[in-house]
Amino acid sequence: MKPRRRLVLVEDHRLFRAGVRSELDPGIEVVGEAATVAEAIPLIRELDPDVVLLDVHLPDGTGQAVIAAVAPERPGVKFLALSVSDAAEDVIAVIRAGARGYVTKTISGPELSEAVHRVAEGDAVFSPRLAGFVLDAFRGGEMPGDPELDLLTAREREVLQLIARGYLYKEIAAQLHLSVKTIESHVSAVLRKLQLSSRHELTRWAVERRLI
Amino acid sequence: MSTVAGRLPAALARLARLPEERVLGGVCAGLARAARVDATLVRLVFALLSFAGGAGLVVYAAAWTGLPEQGRPQPPRSRRVAAALLLGVGVVVALRSVGVASSVLWPAAIVGAGVVLALQQRGDASRSQNTVRAVAAAALVVGGSLLFLETATSSPSGSSLVAPAALVVVLFLVVGPWIWRLVRERDTERMERIRAQERADMAARVHDSVLQTLALVQRSAADPRRVAALARRQERELRGWLYGSATGDEAGGEMLGRALDDALADVEELHGVRVELVQTGDLPLDDRLRALVLAAREAVANAAVHAGVHDVAVFADVGDTEVSVYVRDRGAGFEREAVPQDRRGISESIEARLARHGGRATIRSTPGQGTEVELRLPLEAS
């Protein structure tokens, strides 16, 4: 039996908030809602929820701004980024700011609930699209600064490719003859690299993306 | 020229000290980052300059005083003025140490101060303030020039050339800021024109696509599949326009990613499924890749027709040596032996088509769990 999760919803479309609220499973309680960065920051500080479901773009700023303001004093709060269809660099940026995962708004209710639980437990949640972005960002290996952080292992690459192909964790585990826990730890390792790497490529890649 | 003049202040405004990389005050690290060179090089220059009568030290002190720390606001005005004065002293010291005569330097310094004052004229200051500034600046420029002319003419050599040259310089210095301002205004105007045009483009685009789609959605409200398909197509179109549209057009040819996207959008519309495409890397389209796109399209269409699902996931991975496309559904699945011989979709449209171009298709399907079609096409060594 999963513990009940307290969720704050930060998203500027009222209709979408209502939709999410009605679709989440009963194990998730929406304790607060905010539509802007300015509303979200004090609300999260006050409520100290397990998970914040955070839109990448808000009317008065980005999801990153919320994470940057709240994360240092509320380390227990996990952020799950959510967006409709974003440019890769925006998504990577919000992950680098500290979000534990990224899902698109077309995700189904049960999948979203699953993602919230998984993030609450400290795991990472990669949608196929995020996996594609990350593979792209870590593509090419010329002159890595710190091999520990700047390169993906062959196994991590394999896991990300399977996520991009639409496999669930348990399917990936079966495919690679590994346990689900091992898959989770690979994904967490990728998330950590994404957040800590000062990889030149990451910035160059983002810049190129913006230019094209 | 106007672009250089326009960029320089922006570059100056970005200058900052980097305390986290500092040896002394982070000045060299900051300058190095701004100029995109190695910090050691900048440090070396400062060290060498210090031999020029200590000029390096003075300039360093000026930068330390006047530059903000990275990410902090600009220091107060008094500090910036002090920094500017220090910088002036540093330049004078440096020039003296390389043998420029004092008789030229001090008048030049005075004229320089006048010019700086003139450049500081700003739109947001009041008119009277600007007038006072202009008068003071003109006085400094004229005074410095007169001093220069006097010392120059009293010295025996080259006086006939120096006087007119000095006058030209003075004229340039006085008129220069005014011209600069004109140029900047013209740049601003052009930027605004470009912005207005972009807004108009955006409005036209929104009208042609989004508003039309919304109208169609209202008329099809009774048919959820049609509404979903319309919304999907609109989303694709908008996303392509916002984030990816230029990848094909500007490179001069169509790209694999765009072709796949278009092909999948067709299937979506035709069969009312949702196809999620994830892609890494991209390539310009050629005949072989076109065959791959057609094979992928067929695989998605098969999933749409036979699997009985609403979602199909497609992952296209452009590697160094080959391109792979995976088409996956969680539908009915099938057994190859059970497919009637006259159904040629898989063997003709997918396997044979790919094989003709040196590629290979693998189909994994479990009845009840879904199907994954894997298409691989080696890249020809070029």
Could you please describe the fold and organization of this structure?
The complex is a heterodimer of chains A (212) and B (382). By secondary structure, chain A is an alpha/beta fold. Chain A has helices at 14-23, 37-47, 63-70, 88-97, 109-120, 128-137, 147-150, 154-164, 169-176, 180-196, 200-211, and strands spanning 5-10, 28-34, 51-55, 57-58, 61-62, 78-83, 101-104, 125-126. In chain A, β4 (57-58) and β5 form a beta hairpin. In chain A, α9 (169-176) packs across α10 (180-196). Chain A is globular. Chain B is of the alpha+beta class and 382 residues long. Helices cover 65% and strands 10% of the residues of chain B. In chain B, strands 1-2-3-5-4 form a five-stranded mixed beta sheet. In chain B, α6 (102-119) runs parallel beside α8 and α9 packs antiparallel against α11. The radius of gyration of chain B is 35 Å and the shape is elongated. At the A-B interface, α6 of A face α9, β1 and β2 of B.
Keywords, separated by commas or semicolons:
heterodimer, A: 212 residues, 53% helix, B: 382 residues, alpha+beta, 5 strands, elongated, disordered N terminus
What's a quick, concise take on this entry?
The complex is a heterodimer of chains A (212) and B (382). Helices cover 53% and strands 16% of the residues of chain A.
Residue fraction in strands of chain A = 15-25%
Report the span from N to C terminus of chain A. Answer: 48 Å
Please compute the radius of gyration of chain A using only Cα atoms.
17 Å
Terminal CA distance of chain B: 42 Å
Strand order of the largest sheet of chain B: 1-2-3-5-4
For the biggest β-sheet of chain A, the strand order reads 2-1-3-6-7-8
What portion of residues of chain B is helical? 55-70%
Instruction: Tell me the number of strands of chain A.
Output: 8
Shape of chain B: elongated
Helix count of chain A equals 11
Instruction: Report the count of strand segments of chain B.
Output: 5
Beta-strand content estimate of chain B: 5-15%
Write down the secondary-structure element order of chain A: EHEHEEEHEHEHEHHHHHH
Name the overall outline of chain A.
globular
